[in-house]
Amino acid sequence: LVDEDDVGGALRLLRRASMCLRFITAQLDMLEQMSPWEYQEIRKVLGHGSGFDSPGWRELRRVVPALGQAFHGLREQAGLSLTDVYVNGREHEELYQLAEATIELDERINFWRIRHYKVVARVIGDSVVGTQGTPVEVLGRLIQHVFFPELWRVRNELTALSQEQ
Questions:
Q1: At 47, is the secondary structure helix, strand, or coil?
Q2: 126: which of 3, 121, 140, 154 fits an S-S bond (Cβ 3.0–4.6 Å)?
């Protein structure tokens, strides 16, 4: 939708995707109501399935980088730096809103990863192998990953710019 200059439609879908992430993150609370031993029974029927196999997560990992490319393409087409989008946000409201919806999605993905890792560590441990044969500690390392580091870094640049003025 961003590539088609339908920023309003993109914003609506980004907000919905962020809301979905908020809901599924909250659902992890349910697993913590089971004892670690009780969960072992459920784990047996999961086989090798994991979140890495989820069609939703697979699609999210596919489209999120494309979203970033589309956003930056639109920003460059407007002749703006990322700093300009924030400093002059009122003059470029749609780009500003798109940047914020994009970072919201990134943040929600990160909240999910943190919560998922903590639930897994609490239920099966943090030094064991997960359902797909992946060590649980790999989940812990994913917490540091963000899809849009430039949107996180620009906040540091804005703070420095503000302090210079």
A1: coil
A2: 121
